[in-house]
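quick one, two chains, predict together pls
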Amino acid sequence: MKINFKKGIKLAKNPVVRKLFLMNKNKRVKELYNLFLDNYYNCFYKSKCIYSPFPSPFELLTAFDYEVFLPEPYDYQLVTFGNDEDVIDSSGLSTDTCSVLRFSLGAYKKGLMPEPELLLTFNPHSCDMQGKIFTAMNKDKCYYMDVPYDEKNVKYFREQLIKLKEFLEKKNNVKLDEEKLKENIRVSGEIFDEYIKICKLRKEKVVIKSSEMWGLHIAVMSFGKELLPVIKNLRKYLEEAEPLFDKPIRLMTLHVPSFYNKILDKIEDMGATVVFDEFSLMLGSKCEGNDPYEAIAKKCCSSIGNKTIQERINIDLKIAKEYKADGVIHFSNWGCKQGNACVRSLREAFNKEGIPFLELDVDLDRRNQGEGQTLTRLQTFIDMLKK
Amino acid sequence: MILGIDIGSLTTKAVLFDGKKVIGHKVIRTGSRSFTIAKEIRDLLLKENKLSMKDINYIVSTGYGRENVDFANKQVTEIICHAKGAGFLFPKTKTVIDVGGQDSKIIKVNDGKVVDFIMNDKCAAGTGRFLEVMSRALEVELEDMGKLSLKAKKAAPIASLCAVFAESEVVSHLSKGVKKEEILKGIHDSIVSRIRALGEQIKFEREVTLTGGVPKNVGFVKAVEDSLGFKINMPKEPQIVGALGAAVIGFEEYEKQ
């Protein structure tokens, strides 16, 4: 059945369509996914919408009453509606470029994205295409920032955040309520503490499905005070919850899987589960401190997306050991140079430590991913780890 | 008696195994009959060996069509089966190069068990399908390509990017009067170049065993040896190694029962 995207979004509050939005209907994470529905609804119909990169300086943006919209996670949900090939192709871009952002541009051209008041984008360290896509969407609404390559240059990025604040004050003809910003920082820090507790739970017992965890990664990356009670409840629930699997093969994943083909659920069907997603390091560090701009700058600069290859390798190795990963899967997305360029170095580093490594080709554009080949690789890798 | 069935993209292979040696084997084209081909090859092989299903104790299926074999006791991926089969034939095997109809795999093996692997995909260059396309373009029978290529003193360069583009290159070489054997040598070098690039990611450790349908081509085998710089293990019937591995796994499972 082909669903009309616009109608789908409009009916986001409708329980039937709501089901389509949910990657997982499990009650435990229902509240979490409702936040996404509210976010999409607000972006389309209510609030001032701002497109944001990873990791989002949402603490500052929401202080100006913007609704933060992350196009990439939205693409992954929208693609499950079908008709996706038409959307991707309508971007008019080469098939060798990133399919996720091709989808973003195609969806924007077709009116399937909310109309932003501003498109905020970072330099190409973690993604060399988002800035170009945002520019193609509407160059007059773009605001570019330069995230330095390491944490030593926090001051440099802090200055840019202050300039962004001044720009938003002028644009909205309003003086920023600094207390509101500080409160946002405090809430963001509290959310991050809860998030880390949930991540660490996976060290000892697997109480959350891999696909559900991705909802949490994205929520922590973009939501403020509305998320705090939800994540607190979820953490309390998960601490008490019984393990979902009996002695599963423990995997660490690098980069982003394809969600539409339920690859994470298939991994679990094969007797394995994900205990750590490298993506959670994309969120950066906890937002804290008396200086809100420095707090946000530190968070953004510490994201793994802004690390050198060697730093990325060192961090991933440390985490894999800490979380006792039996094996590592790198999801190599078609056209993602930032993600794929260092796969060989990662493979060598993990192999040196005796940790098996699988590079799995995936893509949002389902024409670039063979179901049979994917399952054969996964099954072999997991069987290999079982022995 | 154990039956191993390997349903590949181009051919379906079956092996009868008594726990020590291969009793019989069969190879037929898969065609479009992936749902019925397993039963077809099973019945043909049993008939040839004057056996019936009552004589079969365990069946393992493998290959892309493994899930379609509803009478199998177990389904195992072809990567695991090729490692097992190569390890059975050459116990010191550390690396398996399997070049089949639609993909090529480099499998690191220890005692017949997979410890690492890497596969190509998204492109038919470096696979059996590539040779089929070239066979048609050159009007040389598939089984004659290897021998003919050995006569060449030099190779005509063929880019290894894409099977379809490579066909145009072959046509271009022919129009310039380049000898067929030189083009064939270029084709084999091109396949090996792709496999080499793939395998370097996990390193080729000796002993190396070749499996799959493509290693039946002597020109390809020579190109692999020339590229690696050492002799490689060649099974008498490289095409049935996956089915043999399935049968060996079947025997191990049967013994456990």
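The two ends of chain A are 42 Å apart (CA to CA).
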